[in-house]
C-alpha cells in the first residue's frame, strides 16, 4: 500500500523514504536514512506503481568488498560467546550495502536512466573476514503517471 506525500499529494510505495514525485522526505523518517542513489528510484519489483517505464536502458551492477579488522573479529567472537547482535559487523554490512547501491545508481545515471527496477542483493564471504556485497538491477527511464484528479493539457482551446 503506498503512502501519500503531504507536500505534493503524490503516492510512493512503502519501503521508500522519499516521495517519487517531489523528493520530499517521508513523514516520520530520519533525514539521510534513504540510500544515496543520486535521485534515482530503486525498486526490487519489476515495475513502478507511480511511474510508467518508457525505456529500458540496460543491466547495472554495484559491487563492494569490505574487510572486518581484527578488533571487529574479536568483538564479534565475544558476542558469539555471550549471544546477541554484532553491531560491529552490522555497521560494515550497512555501509557496504549503501556503497553497492550508490555505485549501481551512478552506473544507471551514466547510461541515461532515472530509475532501477528488479534490484537484487547478494552477500558472500571471502576468506575469514571479507564481505562481498553485490547488487544488480535494470536501469530504466520512467515518467510519473498522471493522477486521475490532474487535468490533462489539451492542444485545442
- CATH homologous superfamily of the largest domain? Hypothetical protein apc22750. Chain B
Q: What structural class should be given to the helix and strand makeup?
A: alpha+beta
Q: How does the overall form come out from the CA principal axes?
A: globular
Largest sheet: 4 strands, mixed
- Total of DSSP H or I helical runs spanning 4+ residues: 2
If you average the pLDDT, what whole number results?
A: 77
Strand content: 25-35%
Count the domains: 2
List unreliable stretches of 5+ residues. none
> Roughly how many Å is the radius of gyration?
19 Å
CATH architecture of the largest domain: 2-Layer Sandwich
The topology string of helices and strands comes to EEEEHHEE
- What is the end-to-end distance? 38 Å
Just give the CATH class of the largest domain: Alpha Beta
CATH topology of the largest domain: Translation Initiation Factor IF3
Helix content: 10-25%
Side by side, the strands of the main sheet go: 3-5-6-4
- The number of strands is 6
InterPro entries: UPF0145_dom_sf, UPF0145_YbjQ-like
Family: Belongs to the UPF0145 family.
Protein name: UPF0145 protein FHS27_004915
Q: What would you note in describing this structure?
A:
With 157 residues, this protein is an alpha+beta fold. It has 2 domains: 34 residues, no CATH class; 80 residues, 2-Layer Sandwich (Translation Initiation Factor IF3), CATH 3.30.110.70. The chain contains 2 helices and 6 strands. The strands form 2 sheets. A 4-stranded mixed beta sheet has the order 3-5-6-4. It has a two-stranded antiparallel ribbon with strand order 1-2. A hairpin with a 6-residue loop joins strand 1 and strand 2. The model has no long low-confidence stretch (mean pLDDT 77). Pfam families: YbjQ_1 (PF01906). It comes from Aporhodopirellula rubra.
Amino acid at each position: 500500500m503506498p503512502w501519500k506525500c503531504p507536500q505534493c499529494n503524490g503516492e510512493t510505495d512503502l519501503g521508500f523514504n522519499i516521495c517519487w514525485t517531489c523528493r520530499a522526505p517521508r513523514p516520520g523518517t530520519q533525514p539521510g536514512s534513504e540510500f544515496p542513489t543520486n535521485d534515482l528510484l530503486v525498486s526490487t519489483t519489476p515495475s513502478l506503481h507511480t511511474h510508467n517505464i518508457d525505456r529500458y536502458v540496460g543491466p547495472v551492477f554495484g559491487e563492494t568488498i569490505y574487510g572486518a579488522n581484527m578488533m571487529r573479529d574479536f568483538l564479534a567472537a565475544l558476542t558469539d560467546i555471550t549471544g546477541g547482535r554484532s553491531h560491529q559487523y552490522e555497521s560494515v554490512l550497512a555501509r557496504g550495502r549503501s556503497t553497492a547501491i550508490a555505485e549501481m545508481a551512478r552506473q544507471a545515471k551514466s547510461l541515461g536512466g532515472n530509475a532501477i527496477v528488479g534490484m537484487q542483493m547478494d552477500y558472500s564471504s571471502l576468506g575469514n573476514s571479507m564481505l562481498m556485497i553485490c547488487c544488480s538491477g535494470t536501469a530504466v527511464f520512467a515518467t510519473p503517471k498522471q493522477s486521475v484528479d490532474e487535468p490533462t493539457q489539451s492542444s485545442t482551446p
